[in-house]
Amino acid sequence: MNEAMIPLNVAVLTVSDTRTEKTDRSGRTLVERLEAAGHRLHEKRIVVDDVYRIRAQVAAWIAEPEVQVILTTGGTGFTGRDSTPEAVDVLLDKRIEGFGELFRHLSWQEIGSSTVQSRCLGGLANATVIFCLPGSTGACRTAWDGILAEQLDSRHQPCNFANLVIPERGQHV
């Protein structure tokens, strides 16, 4: 890794019916980690767990050319109001099947079989990479430290998602 990392513009969306900026530890964890890695926070928002509000916010960011990465936290479980996967999946041009698989593999080591209830997902839409994470702070740490830190680093080899969303690299979807 001799070349400099290319910072990405990242939007963070917390999906919750109860969290506020003051109590949103998961969103704050993602912001802290992305900034520590050298990326830039484009915007951070909290929306209630409503499929149309989630979809509207994610779609708005997908349409903004300066947003290269969207991270959502929350709404990926099986309770009645959990609707992040349903909100985001229809917006994707391509799914990143291995993201959910790898996340659950890593999570298994921490929470055992409870990881089967995680419906996290990843995908690409309009040259924007999107990752929907569970709402727990631990899950956000697991996803960032175990997957996203490397995959959003333009220097990571043999491949990474950063190079798909950096226009001058010419590989974006």
From TrEMBL:
Xref: InterPro entries: MoaB, MoaB/Mog-like_dom_sf, MoaB/Mog_dom, MoaB_proteobac, MoCF_biosynth_CS
UniProt cross-references to CDD domains, sorted A to Z: MogA_MoaB (cd00886)
Residues in MoaB/Mog domain copies: 11-155
One GO cellular component, as annotated: cytosol
UniProt pathway annotation: Cofactor biosynthesis; molybdopterin biosynthesis
Gene Ontology biological-process annotations: Mo-molybdopterin cofactor biosynthetic process
Alphabetized UniProt keyword annotations: Molybdenum cofactor biosynthesis
Alphabetized Pfam families for the sequence: MoCF_biosynth
Keyword NAD carried by entry: no
Family the UniProt entry places it in: Belongs to the MoaB/Mog family.
NCBIfam families: moaB_proteo (TIGR02667), molyb_syn (TIGR00177)
Role according to the record: May be involved in the biosynthesis of molybdopterin.
Name of the protein in its database record: Molybdenum cofactor biosynthesis protein B
Organism: Halomonas eurihalina
